[in-house]
Amino acid sequence: MEIKIHAWQLGSKKDTITPQPFYIHCPPATLRELIRECVYCCVQTYNSRLDENDTPNPLSKVEIENMSNIGKIAFGFNYNGKRAIPHEAYENAISCYEDGLYRVFLDDEELADLDSPIILSEGSTITFIRLTMLAGRSFFGGIL
Question: Judging by beta carbons within 10 Å of its beta carbon (0-12, 13-18, 19+), is residue 61 exposed, middle or buried?
């Protein structure tokens, strides 16, 4: 199933949120399951980049422009070589949500309870808003 993901941080310099296509294997029934699917997909992508190549590829002008819109230009290169552990990344994402570090919206409606049922359909838009102003990477490993 393809959905659109927006990842945005309060206080960012850009007002625009560019949706990114995102593929999940099975439609989640709750916010907890949605977070799990998103984290596991991102961990898999992150770890597969480690296996591909040790040398970052040159960035195209389009990639540089897209990255500058979100305020960070990077090669996507992992300098320490550590693989992400899916279960630990998921637990961290849930803990961050429970601590109020980010909020999640399905289309225009906030998803407040981790275990309340949600109805996700093809093309739904999910928005993750990071509420902390601290430096560092998101639980998505900087993919979004």
Answer: exposed
